[in-house]
Amino acid sequence: MRFCLKNGDAMEFKELTVEELTLGYIQSPQEESCTCIFCGEVYEEGIVYRSRGRTVTAERAVKEHIFDRHGGVFHGLLDLDKQVNGLSEIQKDVLTGMYLEKDNKQICEEMGISAATVRSHKFNLQKSKREAKILLALLEQIENETIVKQRKKTEQEALSIEELLVKKDFSGNTLHPFFTQYNLK
Ligand SMILES: [Zn+2]
């Protein structure tokens, strides 16, 4: 299976987009199947699945599977190996508190740390989020073929226009009407 993460095979996980990570499953390009990113289970479109005692579509089935088998996308992602999600135990606890809509007071009491520490962890998580978004956008400029192609086209166009202007300048230096009529008499 491609996404057998619990077995330490995280090689394919890095290829997933933010949207797929957020959903917890991958839709194939022609939308003929949904694959759970946590265990690789495939749900084929057009097949009727039985989930929670009733018949459901592939997409519904994979959503319910993620919830029932992995505790939902949040826990699925949180429980990934530290090598994959990069989260410390404290960060996981703070995130879980936020996920369960607990306030800072509740979180700090349960974790046995000060409210200031909880606030600081929350601040750092938001800071990481902002930085991660910038890094994503930066890497898109390097890795996204469409963006790279578009950039090269724009650069090429700019160069062509510059060349054209330089040519005009040269012709102006030798035979500009202003100089011939007024200055060179
Ligand atoms: Zn699964």
From TrEMBL:
SUPFAM superfamilies: C-terminal effector domain of the bipartite response regulators (SSF46894). Residues 87-127 form the HTH luxR-type domain. GO terms for biological process: regulation of DNA-templated transcription. This is HTH luxR-type domain-containing protein. It comes from the Bacteria. Pfam families: GerE (PF00196). It comes from Emergencia timonensis. One of its GO terms (molecular function) is DNA binding.
